[in-house]
Structure formats: C-alpha cells, structure tokens
Amino acid sequence: MLIDKFGRKITYARISVTDRCNLRCFYCMPAEGINYSPRKDLLSYEEIIRLGKILGKNGVSKIRITGGEPFARKDLIDCLRSLKQIVGIEEVHVTTNAVLIAPFIHDLASIGIDSINVSLDTTDSARFYEITRRDEFEAVWNNLHALIDCGIPTKVNIVVMKGINEGDIIPMANLSKTLPISIRYIEEMPFNGSEVKHEVITYSEIQERLNSVYPNIERLTEKPGSTSMKFKIPGSKGDIGIIAAYSRTFCNDCNRIRITSKGELRNCLYDHSGISLRDLLRENISDAKLIEEIQAHLNKKMANGFEAENNRSEVSYESMSIIGG
Predict the structure, then answer these.
(1) Sheet of strand 218-219, all strands in order from the earlier edge strand to the far edge
(2) Which candidate, 117, 138, 121, places its Cα nearest to that of 130?
(3) What CA dihedral angle connects 10, 71, 320 and 278, to 10 degrees?
C-alpha cells in the first residue's frame, strides 16, 4: 500500500496521456498554445499499462486519464480497455472536452468506462467561443447528450471565472434537474501558462448563488477522499458538486498522485517538483524498485496544497495541459 508520511493511503492516480489540446481555453493556456512535447518524450501506452499494473498491486484502485485532450491521441480506446482489465484497478475514468469523442462513445460504453467528465464552462455558444477560442460548442453539446443516451455516467466540469461565466452557475444547475448528470463547479486555479490571473470566485460564493435560487437544496454525503461538496436540487435527476480547487479545503483527505504525459510523478497539483517515472521505466528497472522510488517520492508529499505551493522553486505556473488536467 502506498502511504504518505501523514498516513494517507494513495488509492487514486491521475495519468495524462498527452499535453496536446484542440481547444485554447484561456484559463489553461495562452492563445498561441504551448510547446508540445515530441511523441518520444511521452509515456507510451505500454508504459502506462505497466504503471497501471504496478499501482494496482499497491493499493491504487482508481485511475483517471487526462490531458491535454486525451482523445487527441490515437488508439486511446485500446489503452482504456487494457486499464479496465488490470487486477486491482476497479475504476477507470476519463476527463475530456468532448469535441473529438463522438466516434468512440459506443466503444467507451462497451468497455465499461466508469465515467466521463466533460469540460464545459458555459451553456452559451458565444461564451464558449470566448473561453475556448474555438467554435465547437455544438459538437460538445451533442456529444454530451450522446454520452447520456449511451448510459455512460457523465459529469460536467465548469471552471467558474469572475466576470466571464458567473451567469452560467444557475443554468448549469438547471441541467441537473432534467438530465442524469453531475455538475461540478470548480474554483479557477492559476495554471494558465502565463502570469495572467483572475479574481477567484470561491466555493462559498458559488454555494450562496445556488442557495439564493434553490433555498431547499440538499447537502449530500461525500465519499472519503472526495474533492467536492455535493448537493442535490429536490426532485432533480442529477446532482451538483463544488470543488474548492483554489481554496483547497479537501487536502487533509488527499488520496491521489498525478503523472504527467512525460511521466513525471507529482505529489500535488501545486507542487513543482517530481521524479521521472518515464526515465526509470526506460532503464528497465524492476517493478519492486519502481514502487520503492514512487514511495520515496511520496514520502515528500506536503500536508496540503498551500504548503506545496509555498515550497515551489518557481513563481510562474505551467499550463494545466502540461501538468495534466
């Protein structure tokens, strides 16, 4: 079992498969994009599967595949199918912007994907273009409904930004009334690949806006290690969650590690230092030695995101596409 120095068991790994993305969301990367990594620098699918098997033997039961945009990388379905077959891995999830997902929805259903998180920050097509710098709202909207129609558990992630999409808080909540989906409001974080920052709308402000329209909204019980505070509008088909990603209220129960597309192990989103699992894998070290290296790095995990941020060697923040969303 992987356990950090605070006694927290690591049961969840977020693994990025690419730093490439077909959108240019301004809270994630500059308009001109980023310098993408050459393919040879990325973890191969074989390396990802090997990591999955090693982690599955050592207490990790949940894997989330992220990017960049995961479906920008070819043959992702084969990788997901292999991950679903690993002993010890009970759940495999994917976070996507859903632009490219249409040809793969039935495959996702057939392999039993545990859920899909769709990044969608607005219900308005013009605002979508303003945020993403791309005209792809219709594709995302149609694919979101296709996921639901196929019976795939679906969440919608909305990054709430001051002066940009505050007006979408209630329309998004309304979607949970008529659709069997989970809406997840996320505080904006500074990982936009530039020095541009925005005033953060906190989780408490989001909750106040929801309460003002739905005073009878119900608080639900969260699972251990959950990052979201969960709610439900009475009579709705779906539910609502608020993730205090900037306020970092959930750090004490952290059960996760993060692996970038280049194979760097990060203990925390706000931590700038890591070790290269890719290089270790390519040295052909044993599984036992690799897990020793992972545990050694895990022993350096900070108590919370604020401590990790204060310990950073650099003030600037990478694009979320580089770290793994």
Answers:
(1) 218-219, 228-232, 239-243, 182-187, 154-160, 115-119, 91-96, 62-66, 12-16, 256-259, 264-266, 275-276
(2) 121
(3) 60
Amino acid letter, 127? R
Say how many CA atoms lie within 13 Å of 78 toward its Cβ. 6
CATH code given to domain 12-323: 3.20.20.70
Residue 292 CA: distances (Å) to CA of 12, 282, 288: 18, 16, 6
d(CA 242, CA 69): 23
For 302, the token pair is 């900070």
Q: Does the predicted TM-score (pTM) go above 0.90?
A: yes
Question: H/E/C letters for each residue in 134-158?
Answer: CCCHHHHHHHHHHHHHCCCCEEEEE
**pLDDT, mean over the chain:** 93
Query: 13 by DSSP, 3-state: which?
Result: strand
Query: Per residue in 147-159, pLDDT tens?
Result: 999 999 999 999 9
DSSP string, 233-280: -TT-SSEEEEE-TTTTTTGGG--EEEE-TT-EEES-TT----EEHHHH
The two three-digit tokens of residue 123, written as one number? 């219900």
Sign of CA dihedral 108, 110, 113, 116: positive
Alpha carbon 28 to chain centroid distance?
Answer: 12
Cα diameter, the chain: 58
How far is residue 325's CA from residue 323's CA, in Å, rounded to a whole number? 7
Q: What is the C-alpha separation between 311 and 247, in angstroms, rounded?
A: 17
Q: What is the mean pLDDT of residues 295-323?
A: 85
Contact 61, 84 (CB under 8 A): no
Residues 21/69, Cβ–Cβ less than 8 Å: yes
Cβ 86 vs Cβ 57: under 8 Å: no
Mean pLDDT of 86-108: 98
pLDDT at 75 over 80: yes
* pLDDT (average), residues 243-266: 94
Q: How long is the chain?
A: 325
